[in-house]
Amino acid sequence: MARLPLWLELAGRRVLVVGGGRVGTRRALMFAEAGAEVRVVGLAFSRELEEAARRGRVELVELDASREEALRPYIEWADIVVAATSEPRVNEAVWRLARGARKWVNDATDAARTEIVVPYRAVFLGGALEVAVTTQGRSGVVARHALERIKSCLEGDTVLEKLYEAMWRVKPVLKALLPDGRARFPIYFRAEEAVLEAIEGGGDPLRAAARAVAEALREHGVEVSEEEVYRMMLEAREPIRALSEQAGGGRLGHGAAGRG
Predict the structure, then answer these.
(1) Where are the domains of the chain?
(2) Rounded to an integer, what distance in angstroms lies between the CA atom of residue 59 and that of residue 77?
(3) Least buried of 95, 98, 116, 229, by fewest C-beta within 10 Å?
(4) How far apart are CA 240 and CA 26, in angstroms?
(5) Sign of the CA dihedral 27, 32, 36, 39?
(6) pLDDT digits (tens, 9 = 90+) for 154-183
């Protein structure tokens, strides 16, 4: 099965979770935290789901999921369907109905046939850098250990922090001053080299980036001073945030939500 790792914007998307137990709870809260509209269908629900429903984070629907005709309208409503019951026959029906309706399916009980894999995740640089690790369901233990090793390498990496702080400012300034994307591309590398040299030498990374960008732009006929580029970088807006964050939604944490 060919799978492509993607980051998806879930604000405004509809997620149906079939099953209100431990796994269904984790998945429902995960999607709700990411900004999705979440409905959970089942005959019983965890205390965490009941509390989330009281707070308006999820909607609970008491329904016997084995009744396919009763379940079908809820599947039609959803963009993503999660099968997370303890009954293989019900999970099979959920998967079949969702696939028939051309919905994305996260089968929390069968990694081999799931269409959406939930990885182990970690966030760095105050949310600017996110890493996800999975073994496609073969071993969550291995995925979790791999993530811990990645965290030990990246947490507290001051070079990475300084590089990010300079380079995210380079991008909007270059776009404003040089519309040609193909011409901009090599300038990013020149700015990167300048920033890394400044970090190693104890200089000002942002100043070094401004100098490199100004010099490169002049080669393309854009007359702009280092000071002007530096000022524009300082005034650059915050990096692009996900719609769910702009709307007040939170960021997901790492680890427990994934099966790896």
Answers:
(1) 14-116, 158-234
(2) 13
(3) 116
(4) 28
(5) positive
(6) 998 999 999 999 999 999 999 999 999 999
